Amino acid sequence: MRIHLLFLLISLPSxxxxxxxxxxxxxxxxxxxxxxxxxxxGNYLTYGREAILAIDKSPYGITYFHRPTGRCSDGRLVxxxxxxxxxxxxxxxxxxxxxxxxxxxGVNFAVAGATALDTSFFYERGLDAFLWTNSSLSIQLGWFKxxxxxxxxxxxxxxxxxxxxxxxxxxxxxxxxxxxxxxGQTIEDVKKIVPRVVRAIVEATKTLIKxxxxxxVIPGNFPVGCLTVYQSLFQSRNKEDYDSHNKCLxxxxxxxxxxxxxxxxxxxKLQRQLTHAxxxxxxxxxxxxxxxxxPEKFGFIKDHVLSACCGGGEAYxxxxxxxxxxxxxxxxxxxxxxxxWDGIHLTEAAYAFIAKKVIxxx
Length: 362
Known about the structure:
The protein is α/β, with parallel strands linked by helices and 362 residues long. The chain is 38% helix and 9% strand. The strands form two sheets. A six-stranded mixed β-sheet has the order 1-6-5-4-2-3. The protein has a two-stranded antiparallel ribbon with strand order 7-8. Helix 3 packs across helix 13 and helix 9 packs parallel to helix 11. The longest helix is centred in the C-terminal third of the chain and has 24 residues. The protein is globular, with a radius of gyration of 20 Å. The N terminus is likely disordered.
C-alpha cells in the first residue's frame, strides 16, 4: 500500500495532490458543496441582504446564465463545471430549497462572504467591519446535518449513498484573511490566524467524514497578490514589492503559499488517521499562477490580467464607490479575455481552466 500511494503522489500533476488508499475514480451522481463566494450559487442572494457587491444585478451572470443568479462571476463557477462533468444538475442553494424537494443530486451550502472561523472570532477582536454574513463553515455543516435525514433515512442507504457522493469543502478561509487585511492588519498579524483557519477546515473535514463522507476535495487559496482588489488597495511605490515577471504583490502571494503549506500538511496528517477516506487537496495557487505568468496561453490579454473586467474605472478598473453592478460601473466587452471579473472574483473563463485541472484527477 505504501508503494501504491507513493506512486500516486509522484505521478500526479504538481497542481493537485491526492492522498488516498482506495481509488477516487467514480461516476459521482451527488455533490455537496461548502465554502464562500467562490462556490455560492445563490445562498447569499436568498438572504435578500445587500452585499458589498451587487450580485443581484447585471452584468453578473451575463456570460452563461444571461441573468444574475447569485454567483459572483460573469458565469459558471468551478462547482458548476464539476457538476456538469459528472452529469449532475446545477446544485440548488440550500436556503432556496423547499420541503419535499428531491435533493438526491446534492446541495450547495456555500455562502458569499462566509468564513472558516465563526463570526464571534471577528467580533471579539474588532475585525467585523466587513463581515457580510454569519454563515460560517460550522453553520454550513449544521445545515448539512439537518438536511441529511431527509436525503437518506436508513443507515445502510445513507452509508452507500454518501460513499458515492463528492464533497467540495471550499475554497474557504480566504475571507478570514481578507477581512483582517481590510482592517489594517499586517501580514505578520494575519499569519497568527492561519493555524486557527486551517484547524477549522480540518475539523470540518473530519466532521463530514464522521457523517459518512468518503470523497472530499479541499482547495487551497488563490495567489491573492494577483487579485485586483489587493493590487488596488495595497499598491506600493517600492518596485521590490512586485514580482518582476507578473507584477503580482510578492508578500501577499507568499502569504497564500504559507496558508496552503499549513493546510496541505494538516490534510496529510488527517489522511493518515482516517485511511478509509479519500482526502483530495487541490492546489488552486499553482493552477492559477500560469494565468498571470503566461496569460496569452489561456486566451487572456496580458495588459488586462491584473485588472477587473467589471468595475468603475480608476486603477485596475476598481472603484470601491462604483463596484461591479452598481451605478458608475461597466463590464468589459469580452470577459473571456480577463482573469479577474469584479476585482475580487474570477471570470467564468478562468474558473473553466481551474475546474478542468480538478476534474481530470477525480
